[in-house]
Amino acid sequence: MNDEIKDVEVIEENETEACALEISRKHILMVLTEADKLTEHHKTGVWFEEFAVPYLAFLDEGFEVTAVTLHGKPSPIDPKSENLIDDIKWHKAKEALDHPESLSDIDTKKYDAVVIPGGHGPLFDLADSEMLGQLLSDFNEENKLIAAICHGPAAFLSAKQIIKDTEMTAFTNEEEKEAGLDDIVPYSVEDKLKEYDAVFVKENPGAIYVVDDKNIITAQNYQSAKAFADAIISYLEK
């Protein structure tokens, strides 16, 4: 066998390995809010830790992660969660929030999971998005992973059929009261999920708590961000 034939075989082998790696690599779609106001006097957005901790964990695991908003606008950060941004390890996550893609431009069929971080923003845009609702419905029908943390499960209101009889958690009424926002939020995520027949479960305020039911993973609060990421990684690597 001459050297030229050997070189061709090596190239073909490398291309085959690259294709196999791409097929096996998990693809995660992280859907973020564009809303930046709770009221005229209260700014909101995504709770940074609920995005950054899972996002960086997924990248470390070798997953391909795409951050999107409904219209491709930057996702604002809730000012109360900005304490992490100055640490250099968080810069990659901050850049992803500043330059998301538009959900309407995404070929969602290639993704294995959709992950929705919280912050109060999702109550104002993701919860009533027909586009996101269709995505969640499609993922649920295909038994693909749907995951949301804290106020992120408000997005399930865009596809209410996935809520019924599903065990899930979210930011609780007690936690909203402790945050001093129970009289300001447009609605309670806990109450809304119960209204549409979720099997709502919870732990004490601030407790690390993640719930896995069928193809849906939810987490109660930002303190649960790492456990939430770990649960998603474990699910996708089964």
Detailed description of the structure:
There is one protein chain. Helices cover 34% and strands 16% of the residues. It is of the alpha/beta class and 238 residues long. It has one domain: Class I glutamine amidotransferase (GATase) domain (Rossmann fold, 3-Layer(aba) Sandwich), CATH 3.40.50.880. Strands 5-4-1-6-7-11-10 form a seven-stranded mixed beta sheet. Strand 6, helix 4 and strand 7 form a beta-alpha-beta unit. Helix 2 packs parallel to helix 7. The longest helix has 22 residues. About 3% of the residues have low confidence.
Q: Overall 3D geometry?
A: globular
Question: Which class best fits the helix and strand makeup?
Answer: alpha/beta
Could you tell me the CATH topology label. Answer: Rossmann fold
Q: Which regions have little confidence, pLDDT < 50, spanning 5+ residues?
A: 16-22
**CATH homologous superfamily designation:** Class I glutamine amidotransferase (GATase) domain
Q: Give the averaged pLDDT, no decimals.
A: 91
Main sheet overview? 7 strands, mixed
Distance N terminus to C terminus?
Answer: 42 Å
Provide the CATH top-level class: Alpha Beta
**What is the name of the CATH architecture?**
3-Layer(aba) Sandwich
Number of DSSP helical runs? 7
The count of domains is: 1
**Strand order, sheet with most strands:** 5-4-1-6-7-11-10
Beta-strand content estimate: 15-25%
Give the number of DSSP strands. Answer: 11
* SSE topology string: HEEEHEHEEHEEHHEEEH
Radius of gyration: 19 Å
Helix content: 25-40%
